[in-house]
Amino acid sequence: MGQYRIQRLNDQLRDEISQLILRGEVKDPRVSTFLSINRVEVTTDLGYAKVYVSSFLPDGQVRKGVDGLNAAAGFIQREIAKKLRIRQFPKLQFQVDAGMKAGFEMVQKLNELEREEKINNSDTEDKSE
After folding, report:
1. Which residue of 42, 67, 92, 108 is 20 to 30 Å from 122, comparing CA positions?
2. Which residues contact 64 (CB under 8 A, 6 or more apart)?
3. 12-66 tens-digit pLDDT
């Protein structure tokens, strides 16, 4: 399969899995609608697809949600395979993606440093006058 077709399949799988979660069709109680699918990486032989999941929920709840998604992987594969016309449907493997949360925390730290710098600069200006 060509690179562009793989990328299109990645995007399509991401959208379909997200819709299943948002509509509440995954009945596992560990799966929250607050989980988001960041990206999907399908192997070139269509054997497997890694699905990266993140959320702003506490880490324990995200891990439970990923466990629930892994338990419901067969159901999710079957539902999406009904809609997509591909020769072989990849086996879904859900994983926690901590990148989004780490990036958000880094931005918060940078904003905090910027605020502290502004406060320190205003204090030194007041003392020099």
Report:
1. 108
2. 30
3. 999 999 999 999 999 999 998 899 999 999 999 989 999 999 888 888 899 999 9
Q: What distance, in Å, lies between the first and last C-alpha atoms of the chain?
A: 70
Per DSSP, 46 falls in state: S
Type of residue numbered 47: G
pTM for this predicted structure: 0.77
CA 78 vs CA 6, 50, 74, 88, 111: distances in Å: 19, 16, 6, 12, 45
Report whether 18 contacts 39 (CB < 8 A): no
Q: For residue 51, which of 29, 70, 34 has the smallest C-alpha distance?
A: 70
| Length reported for the chain | 129
Assigned token pair, 52: 């990266």
